[in-house]
Amino acid sequence: MSLQQFIEQLDDLAGSARQAFMAAADSEQLESARIEFTGAKNGQFKLIQKQLGSIERGDKPLAGKRLNEVKQEIQNAFDEAAERLAGGQVDGERDPKVDATLPGPVQRIGRLHPITQTINELKDIMGRLGFTPAEGPEIEDDWHNFKALNIPDIHPARDPLDNFYLSTARHSAPSLGDNPLLMRTQTSTVQIRVMENRQPPIRIISLGRVYRPDTADATHFPMFHQMEGLMIDEGVNLSDLKTVLKLFATSYLGDEVPIRIRPSFFPFTEPSVEADYYWNGKWVEFGGAGVVDPNVLSAVGYDPDKVTGFAFGLGVERLCMIRHQITDIRYLYTNDVRFLQQF
Ligand code: FA5
Question: Which domain does 17 fall in, by range?
């Protein structure tokens, strides 16, 4: 059994025992609740305690600690109920011995996942720069994931081995010329969806999950998040892009952060760049970007002679990892409470 399951069981038990003790209307009912939860032979606490043996060795100290805490919590709840009944008080009556101004028992409450916290912060920062959030589906079609982004039919990025196509025949390649569905590989799909439905000026971001059959390692995961940015208006150029990326990096990382752009290639931007920022003594890549290719503007019905724009796509996990010095992306997705509690 995993540590998390063990702790969840204990927490459920503590809640149920507290409720049962509180609901007991007389000492007989309280005693039968006590036997049910803490009976020496088959009490529920005993049954969970027996599972301690199946917990991994390294997790045992934490599991044992929580076991003792819950035992004490249940005992306290029992003592409170016994005291209440001894005073002849039943639910709903006022207990003169209870001081309602004292803090109650410590409640273990959940918190937002670090990636959700990062997403909220990114939305905040970009919101201050005038970028509003836009959404798109995670199951996409060929048009939005490739074709409208100037990625031609014969292009290695469409390889079935590099994409999660949704096909009735397993592992079958999509037939050219139709519009197969796939899990989106990039949030650039949302650029197209927004431009198809709105006229410039446009200044949006889109934050969401993307999927690639990448082998998981310290910096790669098959499901990860990207933040897409898109700005279209008259006269928007590469130096506007650099300004926005610099303001973003400085806001997110908190200091004056130098950034640099290097030439790169994406079919949907021309010129294309890779953006790096300087952090903790080294240059770190934070995503791809560029000036929106005129072919993309034409594909959505804009006039490339009238409007121009820039786009960027950043890896959210990588940003979160740099900021919190997380050394392995897999920590974000193994749901270990010891890791998650630190955020
Ligand atoms: C793209 O996905 C482009 N759509 C970015 C873009 C948008 C370019 C708009 C131009 C205009 P790329 O494949 O490099 O680019 O991915 C962008 C970022 O996603 C990477 O810099 C990295 O931070 C992150 N990333 C890529 N693959 C993974 C992975 N398997 N796990 C975690 N993060 C990843």
Answer: 3-94
